[in-house]
Design brief:
alpha/beta, 2,3-Dihydroxybiphenyl 1,2-Dioxygenase, domain 1, 4-stranded mixed beta sheet, 2 helices, globular
């Protein structure tokens, strides 16, 4: 259902280095790029059969800012992968918004971070199926 998620950055080169290394942990690589302006990562080269995560300079040429209530969620295979991705993000300079752990009673397990520009994201998995 979702084609792509895009966040703005005020330091394009730092954002690329951060997401290149972090998203590689999910098997994602750069799939599209307009040099110096826009980069997309995905697990497939096909824009019509894969979701993508994108970083760009804002179109209006103003400073990028974080949206209140906006968050990107990256699917992990299991709790160990959530923990590893969260640790990698922190190692790369992300800030903690909630250490990995269970949330609620339905098997939802997630860790929350903010990237170098303050964009909020998480890594999550479902550890059991609901009834």
């Amino acid at each position: 259902m979702i084609g792509y998620q895009m966040v703005g950055t005020n330091n394009y080169d730092k954002a690329l280095a951060f997401y290149d290394e972090l998203l590689a942990e999910l098997g994602a690589k750069r799939t599209m790029e307009v040099e110096g302006y826009f980069t997309a990562w995905g697990q497939s080269q096909s824009a019509t059969h894969s979701t993508a995560f994108c970083v760009c300079h804002p179109e209006n040429k103003k400073e990028a800012s974080v949206g209140n209530g906006v968050m990107t969620a990256f699917i992990a295979t299991d709790t160990q992968k959530v923990d590893a991705l969260y640790a990698k993000a922190i190692e790369l300079g992300a800030t903690c918004e909630g250490k990995p752990g269970p949330r609620g009673e339905d098997g939802f397990y997630a860790g929350y971070c903010r990237d170098l520009d303050g964009n909020k994201f998480n890594f999550f998995c479902i550890t059991k199926t609901g009834s």
